Amino acid sequence: MEMEKIVAQTVIETERFDLRPVRKSDMGLIEMYTSDLRVARMTTSIPHPIPPGSTEAFVSRAMADDREEDVWIMDGLKSDRAEVMGLISLSRLDRNQSEVVYWVAPHFWNTGLASDAVEALVQTNPMQNDTMFASVFQDNPASARVLTHCGFKYLGDAENYSVARDANVPTWTYSRKL
Length: 178
What we know:
With 178 residues, the protein is α+β, with helices and mostly antiparallel strands. It has helices at residues 27-34, 37-40, 54-63, 113-124, 141-149; strands at 12-13, 18-21, 69-75, 86-93, 97-104, 131-137, 153-162, 167-177. A hairpin with a 4-residue loop joins strand 1 and strand 2. The chain is globular.
């Protein structure tokens, strides 16, 4: 009999919001925000329009015991804000590294939410990584500023495929030694 590895995911508290694991009850707000073309265009994996069942499949993957990615909801209830303001994730890579991916609902853009979430994840380092990586589309300089503000260093240019854009898009890649 082989035992499956169950990956525990902690709640990360900040002063104005908590980063907590995804719940099924988050599906409606996740789908509402990711249905916004402005959000989908700045990610590699969110299609536009959102196909039926894709949000449910995402939430199921995020909640699975054998997941390769830990996903946290930016939950603002502790400061009388929305229960879902965005999300941030860490994907496991080889050599004790991970990749940070995040999006923030447009209503919360330019509030420092993304910077606070990335910084909280870096400071907590829940996977005990040696290095975190991130990439942003070059037409999203606000996300690049989030990463540099949080101590990420520019590595170089590349390109990633964007499902919403149905195209390869130039990116900037960053890393942070921990």
